[in-house]
Amino acid sequence: MRFALIGAGVIGAVHARLVDTLGEEAVLAAVVDQNLERAGELVAQYGGRAYATPAEAYAAEEIDAVAICLPSALHADVAIEALRAGKHVIVEKPVDITLAAADRLIDVQRETGLTVSVISQRRFQPPVAQIRAAIDGGALGRVTSGIAESAFFRPQSYYDGDDWRGTLAVDGGGALMNQGIHALDLLVWMLGRPVQVSAQTGRLAHEGIEVEDLAGASIRFESGAIGLMLASTAAYPGRPVRLTVHGDQGTAILDDDQLAYFAAADAGAPEAPVVDGPDGWGPTQVAHLAQYRDFIAAVRDGRPPAVTLQDGRRSLATVLAVYESARTGQPVELKEP
User: Fold this and answer.
1) What φ, ψ does residue 66 adopt, rounded to 5°?
2) Is the pLDDT confidence value at 157 over 90?
3) Backbone angles phi, psi at 292, to 5 degrees
4) Among 132, 185, 206, 291, whose CB has the most other CB atoms within 10 angstroms?
């Protein structure tokens, strides 16, 4: 599969490395960035050619798929441009910063029939897959509650390093939209469709930003289950994502990228899937690679990817409900189209 990478910043470099690691499965054909020098640096390391705009790359190169690694508010429009040009799309989280933008993208994806996946690589970690398999197999019984903690730390320099970081117009949100959304996606994946959110947010440890560095939420799900979410970039020195899922027949806990605890009345933990990656890669890096492999297989086999555009919309809708509840001081009902 011939990829065009759009956005040659920090996360773009991660994606370039992923495509390069796929070997015969994929090749980096183009790197697109308004800063041609920055695009050229990735080209020199991973191959392809540098272009200033997607249109230039599409006109000059044979491109099968596009990886979008731009600031969040640009995701949907650039993805739509790629779909209109006949390219499959893998887009970094969040899918965008508004539901209107996400819905425009969904409409074009349905119209074109092309594949779109939103990055949620933590779903591909073996212990996460074990917990989901335990739920699907009934080992935990009726799922009653879950807790997701994304207690990260970002220094002030993180927000000062790019003029768009920490802005509502481009970043769309802070600790929840950009860091905690991975843990939130897992909570939603485990517990089902969220229907009501009550939340608070704060900006406690950073200056000169318009977004939160702390968010806490209670989420009621369609099944009746209750979820609790904590997202922070103000928790020094930062901790790995922790996810707890309770059921009336068992409990499972993910901590430090491991299945830290599993207890079920009538079952043991499901077998962990094997996810291969290069030596020295960490669990989330290997999971990121696994999502790319799933995306390529989905295109090849004509099936939906494991993480769909609708999954990305659901996570975004929940994030936006957290912000609305924190702003109004009232619970927010979620409805899906």
Assistant:
1) -125, 135
2) yes
3) -60, -45
4) 185
User: Is this structure's pTM higher than 0.85?
Assistant: yes
C-alpha span between 6 and 85 (Å, rounded): 14
CA 297, CA 98: separation in Å to the nearest integer? 29
Provide the pLDDT for residue 337.
83
Interatomic CA distance for residues 72 and 172, integer angstroms: 7
What's the confidence (pLDDT) of residue 77?
98
3, HSE (Cβ side, Cα atoms, 13 Å): 33
Q: How many residues does the chain have?
A: 337
Q: Are 232 and 113 in contact (CB under 8 A)?
A: no
Q: Is the pLDDT of residue 148 over 90?
A: yes
Instruction: For residue 248, give Cα distances in angstroms to 133, 135, 244, 269, 333.
Output: 16, 11, 14, 16, 26
CA atoms of 309 and 99, how far apart (whole Å)? 12
Q: What is the CA radius of gyration of the chain?
A: 20
Helices and strands counted in the chain (H then E) = 10, 14
* Look-up of token digits 């099968």: 64
Helix spans in the chain (H): 10-21, 36-46, 54-60, 75-84, 99-112, 126-136, 156-160, 181-191, 283-301, 309-328
The distance from CA 253 to its chain's CA centroid, rounded to whole angstroms, is: 20
Could you tell me the sign of the dihedral formed by the alpha carbons of 125, 130, 131, 137, in that order? positive
- Distance (Å, rounded) from C-alpha 54 to C-alpha 208? 32
Residue (of 132, 71, 107) closest to 262 by Cα position: 132
